[in-house]
Amino acid sequence: MRRPIFLSIVTIISVSLMVVSNEARQSRASLALHQVDENLYMLANAPSVQGMGGGGNTAIFVTSSGVVLVDTKISGYGADILEQVRGITDLPISTIINTHTHWDHSGSNVEFSDSVNFIVHENTLSHMSRPTCNDGAGYRGGSITNCESFKGDNSKYLPKTTFSTRTSLFSGIEQVDLYYFGRGHTDGDTFVVFKEARAMHTGDMFARRGLPYLDVDNTNGSAIEFGLTLEKAVAGIAGVDIIIPGHDNILRTWDDFVNYSGFYNDLLTKAQTGLAAGQSPEEVIEAYTVPQRYSDFEVTEQRLAATVQHISDGR
Ligand SMILES: [Zn+2]
Questions:
Q1: How many structural domains does the chain have?
Q2: Per-residue pLDDT reduced to its tens digit, 54-84
Q3: Of the candidates 13, 128, 234, 288, which lies 20 to 30 Å from 141 by C-alpha distance?
Q4: CA 146/CA 150 separation, integer angstroms
């Protein structure tokens, strides 16, 4: 009698595993590879994908000593990223940079080899290594910081290389420059510049041509500092023509990035001026219009309300 019971349990488990893997396969977003330069690519959601899809854009940069990735999408996309890399080169993935901690940018870190050199801003490491991760704002109830994926045995995936304001990797035509200019989307956002390609991954400091999500609640982002940080990046980075945005599924230009700073800072100035003159957040929102020169940038009611409220709260 024991044997049939055992078999039926095995059957149930295998059926439920099949259901899970089918669900995972069905919810899988198609990805599209864009060549940026001879050795640089952007792995984005395919144009048909609506919403979050596989998460943020991944940069793939091939050096003579290995492959550098910037951001690893949401959890479960490690094999998809590796498959795309294998279509380009047989070299191992040697370095992974996360622009920030969020679940849709560091989700698949733990699906790569733990011999990879993981690199983040020092504030991002502090979010990844938090003792508790119970904000519940991320994917399927996980935390937005993705810190639960680095617990237990996976603590070996916590980045061992950090920086505070600026650092460079490799040299010559392989040089990669990492910049930090202050709080914004989170308090640990890195701009990654591929020098020879004249290209930059902005992470979610420029996710798409629209008002940003500002994570002031979980990772010490700031609506007020976001504008200043963009201005510092525009003034402090030279030699970039092409932008790999955090989420937009096409490449953008340096001019788009400069205009993004102008667009955001126009709203910041209008809000601060209105609030200082005694307007309520609702009155600031009512009075706001997108300047003609920034008409390519999307302003949703919800993002506008959240941004103005954060500014009003001094956050
Ligand atoms: Zn983010």
A1: 1
A2: 999 999 999 999 999 999 999 999 999 999 9
A3: 13
A4: 8
